[in-house]
């Protein structure tokens, strides 16, 4: 996430249970889970991003079931956690709109520019391996392609998250209205309804046009304002009522949320069974849509109810790497896919990609964290200084 270990309010805010060493470890666990889940999500498809269409239904079964599990903690959970932390940070350290957005821009957009250029060049390796290098090189010489990469984050399949998050954060003053209005948690329903409805209008109306990706992204940002309000409402409940909640209604609320999560997972499994049977992604399942997009809210609220439990402290040490995991894992995912052999079953491919990608990604992010000159690329260090040393000016 954009916050670092030193500035992250999750490590400063007084814990509801009075356990200073364990403050918001539950939130750290969600951050780390979201990062690892995105690796699993991308590993559970073939190198073309498809559900192993050439395999049999039996061979697709376990990879797709794993995907249904990984998809519980999706990029929308990242977005909610980011806004949750921002609301807490603003409560702790108030600042104006300009200063807040400059901070978010430095944390998000400058690393985004670095990784956009990096993946635009790095992807040429996979393009060469799969035989479409000429097409990939042609794209790099197209201004419209670069505009899309810089505005929509299309340089790599995961990069869309950063410009989307920044677009949502532009509306953070609206989210602050929800901090003292818990009922605005329901705004997520309105936002997701808007997204479902407008996307089904936009795709047929603009199919095949250059404007379609931008229209879809605008719809997504507007729809996800509901997530922002929901995250702010949960942050407000946490900041104002955590002690009282844990002492009174923790257990019944936990039970309700757990049953809700189980119901959503059952719907997700029903949807993924269709993918297993056909070898094609399902885009028009309304029940599956709601199960997918409500799960981040339920998961965040569910972990809130468990905040007073003992969480492993190591989660707080690894949680700051979550953004780095998200940003860096495609490097090793691509390399792992190039090492796969056609004879491997889909499940063997998934296991191989996870085995290669997760430890190497963690190693790279840790290396970047320890390197003062590069830590900023994964949100874990100060931006490089462009100041010219005085002695160099005198020599000039």
From TrEMBL:
InterPro entries: Acyl_transf_3_dom
Gene Ontology CC: one annotated term: plasma membrane
Domain Acyltransferase: 25-364
Listed transmembrane segments: 68-87, 108-128, 157-175, 182-198, 218-240, 252-277, 289-307, 319-341, 347-368
Sorted UniProt keywords: Acyltransferase, Cell membrane, Membrane, Transferase, Transmembrane, Transmembrane helix
Similarity annotation: Belongs to the acyltransferase 3 family.
Name assigned to this protein: Acyltransferase family protein
Species annotation: Thalassovita mediterranea
Phylogenetic classification of the source organism: Bacteria, Pseudomonadati, Pseudomonadota, Alphaproteobacteria, Rhodobacterales
């Amino acid at each position: 996430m954009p916050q670092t270990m030193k500035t992250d309010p999750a490590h400063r805010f007084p814990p509801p249970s009075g356990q200073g060493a364990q403050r918001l470890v539950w939130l750290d666990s969600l951050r780390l889970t979201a990062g690892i889940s995105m690796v699993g999500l991308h590993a559970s498809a073939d190198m073309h991003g498809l559900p192993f269409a050439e395999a049999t239904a039996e061979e697709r079964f376990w990879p797709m079931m794993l995907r249904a599990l990984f998809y519980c903690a999706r990029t929308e959970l990242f977005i909610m956690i980011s806004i949750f932390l921002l609301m807490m940070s603003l409560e702790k350290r108030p600042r104006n709109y300009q200063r807040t957005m400059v901070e978010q821009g430095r944390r998000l957009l400058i690393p985004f520019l670095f990784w956009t250029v990096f993946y635009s060049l790095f992807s040429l390796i996979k393009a060469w391996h799969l035989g479409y290098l000429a097409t990939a090189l042609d794209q790099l010489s197209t201004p419209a392609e670069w505009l899309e990469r810089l505005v929509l984050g299309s340089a790599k399949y995961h990069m869309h998250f950063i410009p989307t998050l920044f677009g949502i954060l532009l509306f953070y003053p609206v989210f602050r209205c929800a901090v003292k209005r818990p009922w605005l948690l329901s705004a997520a329903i309105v936002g997701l309804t808007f997204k479902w409805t407008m996307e089904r209008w936009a795709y047929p109306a603009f199919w095949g046009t250059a404007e379609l990706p931008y229209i879809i992204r605008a719809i997504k940002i507007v729809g996800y304002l509901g997530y922002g309000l929901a995250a702010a409402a949960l942050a407000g409940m946490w900041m104002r009522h955590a002690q009282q909640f844990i002492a009174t209604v923790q257990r019944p609320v936990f039970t309700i949320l757990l049953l809700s999560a189980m119901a959503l997972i059952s719907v997700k499994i029903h949807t993924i069974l269709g993918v297993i049977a056909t070898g094609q992604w399902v885009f028009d399942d309304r029940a599956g849509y709601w199960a997918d997009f409500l799960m981040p809210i339920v998961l965040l609220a569910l972990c809130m109810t468990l905040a007073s439990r003992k969480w492993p402290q190591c989660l707080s040490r690894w949680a700051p790497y979550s953004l780095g995991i998200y940003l860096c894992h495609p490097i090793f995912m691509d390399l792992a896919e190039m090492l796969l052999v056609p004879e491997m079953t889909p499940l063997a491919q998934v296991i191989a990609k996870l085995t290669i990608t997760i430890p190497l990604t963690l190693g790279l992010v840790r290396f970047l964290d320890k390197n003062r000159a590069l830590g900023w690329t994964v949100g874990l260090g100060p931006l490089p200084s462009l100041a010219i040393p005085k002695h160099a000016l005198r020599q000039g």
